[in-house]
Amino acid sequence: MKELALKYGCNPNQKPSRIFMEQGELPIEVLNGRPGYINFLDALNSWQLVKELKEATGLPAAASFKHVSPAGAAVGLPLSDTLKKIYFVDDLKVELSPIASAYARARGADRMSSYGDFVALSDTCDEATALLLKREVSDGVIAPDYTEEALQILREKRKGTYNVIKIDPSYRPEPVERKQVFGITFEQGRNEIRLDDPALFGNIPTENKTFPEDARRDLIIALITLKYTQSNSVCYVKDGQAIGIGAGQQSRIHCTRLAGNKADIWWLRQHPKVMALPFVDGIRRADRDNTIDIYISDDHDDVLAEGEWQKFFKVRPEVLTREEKREWIAKNTRVSLGSDAFFPFGDNVERAHKSGVEFIAQAGGSVRDDHVIMTCDKYGIAMAFTGVRLFHH
User: Fold this and answer.
1) Residue (of 274, 273, 292, 275) closest to 283 by Cα position
2) 87, 315, 320, 343: least buried by Cβ within 10 Å?
3) 363-374: pLDDT as tens digits
4) Cβ neighbours of residue 277 under 8 Å, at least 6 residues apart?
C-alpha cells in the first residue's frame, strides 16, 4: 500500500487528506479503526521515540503522546507498590510485563495531559498492556506487533473503533526529510544523532562531576524524549521515566517551571494524604484524576467545599496545606533534567533544584554559562555540557 486516504487533516475543513510514500510501500498497517491526520503525526513521532529509547537502554519503552509531544515516556522497570497505586494498576489481575510497566509509567506521569493519548510501544503489545489500554481514554496505539489476546481486547475498545497500527520495525526512512509550509518546501537531513554516546557526558564544568549509572540512563531518557518534543522543551526524569515535560514554550524558564510543576504534582500524588483519599465508589477515572489534580492545587476548595466534596469523597478529606506540600516536595531527590538547548541564566537551575534535580544535561554555549555553572555548584548539582541542540518543530 503506497497511500492511505484520511477523513480530513488537522481540522475538519482541511480536505483532502492522505498519507503516502513517494517511493516504496507504507511501513504501517492499520489493524483496527480509522486513524486520522493527527493520530498519524503522534504515532510516527512517538514510535521514533520508543524505538530510540529501546536501542539506547536495552529496555522496553513506551510513550504517551498528545498533539505531537510526549505527555510521558518511560522504560520498563518494575513498579513499586506506591507507583502501582498512584498509576491505578494495582488491581490488574495479570502480572505486569516489562512493556506494560513501561506504559503504566508513561501514562501515569501526567495523567491529565495523557487523557485521550496516542500510545507507542517499542515491543509487542501483550495482554497485560492491552488490559491497561482498555481502561484508559485513548485514541490509539502503534507497536511492532500484537499478540492475539491483545488484539482481541483492543478491537473491542471504544465500540470497535479504537485505532491499532502495526509498524514494520525494520523500516528506515530516507536520510533527507521534507515538509511544506505555505506552499514552500523545506528540506533537511534527518536528526540521526545518537544520544547514548558516552562522549555527551565528557564535558562536565561543575565541581560535582559524578554521574551514577542510573543518572546517566535517566539523562539519556530525557534527551531522547526532548528530541521528539516541540521546542522549547525541558524534561525531568526519575527512575527510568519522565515525571515532568515542559513543551512548546517561547521562554526556557517557562519550560523549566512547567515541567517542574508537573514533576511536583507527580511526587505529591505519592503523599500519604493523597494516596488515602476516600473516593466514592464508582467514580470515573477521569473525574478521579481531575479531583486529585485540584486537591493538590491551591484551588482545593473547589472539591472540598460543603456541597462539593460529597460528589467525590465518602468523607471530607483534610486539606493538604502549603507547608505539607513544601515539606514533601523537599523529599524528592536524585532527579535528572535535560534541556533541548542551553540554559541562558541560572534561574533555570534554581527552579530545577526546588524539584529535586541533582543531574543536568544541556547544550551549553550561553554567554552566561559561568552563572549557570556557579548556580549548579551552589547546590552540588552535576551538569554536563553536551554540545548538542535538540530543537524539534
Assistant:
1) 292
2) 315
3) 999 999 999 999
4) 291, 292, 295, 313, 317
Give this prediction's pTM. 0.96
Determine whether 393 is an active site residue.
yes
The span from the CA of 174 to the CA of 43, in Å, is 18
Catalytic residue, from 32, 39, 45, 232: name it: 232
Q: What are 235-251's pLDDT values in tens digits?
A: 999 999 999 999 999 99
Which one-letter DSSP state was computed for residue 15? Answer: -
Beta partners for residue 143, in sequence order: 166
> CA 96 from chain center: how many Å?
19
Active-site hit among 67, 254, 273, 354 = 67
Tell me, yes or no, if 85 is annotated catalytic. Answer: no
Could you say which of 13, 93, 159, 393 is catalytic?
A: 393
> DSSP character for 29?
E
Alpha-carbon distance 227 to 283, whole Å? 37
Does the active-site annotation cover 67?
A: yes
Counting other chains too, the contacts that 183-186 makes at CB distance below 8 Å and 24 or more residues apart are none
